[in-house]
Design a protein that fits this description.
disordered C terminus, nucleotide-binding, 48% helix, Rossmann fold, 5-stranded parallel sheet, cytoplasm, alpha/beta, two-stranded parallel sheet, 13% strand
Length: 203
Amino acid sequence: MSHRHAHPPHAPAPLPRTVVLVGLMGAGKSAVGRRLAARLGLPFVDADTEIEAAAGCSIEEIFQRDGETAFRQGERRIIARLLGERPVHVLATGGGAFMDAETRLVVRSHAVSVWLRADLEMLLHRTARRSNRPLLKQGDPREILQRLIDLRYPVYAEADIIVDSDERPPEQTAERVVAALETHFGIALTPRVPAAAHAGERL
C-alpha cells in the first residue's frame, strides 16, 4: 500500500527513481530486492555488501572492532554515495540505516523508500537461519526484535510506500512492490534493460 494516491498507470515507463528498501533484519530486503531488480531490469545493490567492501571486513567485525556508532557513520556515507553516484537501481539497506535522520533526508531527495513490514514471528523465523546478526547476539532474539520493532517501526512508517512481507514467496512480495510503485508514480513500469544475473549477491 502507498501513503500517496496517484492516477492509474498510463503508458509503460522506466522507474524514475532508485528504490530504497528499508525494514528490520529478516524482512526480506535482499531476497525481495534481487527479484524486484530482475523484474525491472535494474542493478541490485546491497548496502551491507558495499560497506564490507569499503571496510575490507565483515559487518560483524566492524561492530566488534569499532562499535555501532562508527558503523552507522560509515553506513551513512556509503548510502549517500550510492544514491548520489549510481544511476537508478534497487538498494537494500541495513535495519538501522533509515533510523539516521541524515540518511532519511538523502533517501527522500534521491529515491523512493519502501518499507517491507514483517511481524515478530516472521522475523524470528527468518533470522534464526542466519548467524551473522550482531544485534541479536546481545541477548534473547525475541526480546531484542520486539524492542527494535517498538523503536524503529514508527520511523519506518515515514517511508513513501509500505508493503507487508509475510509467508508468501519473495517473488510475490516483489510483484506487490511493483504494483505499489506503479500507483505511487502513476505509471506502468517496464524494464529499462533485460534483467541480467547479478554477481556477488548474498542469499
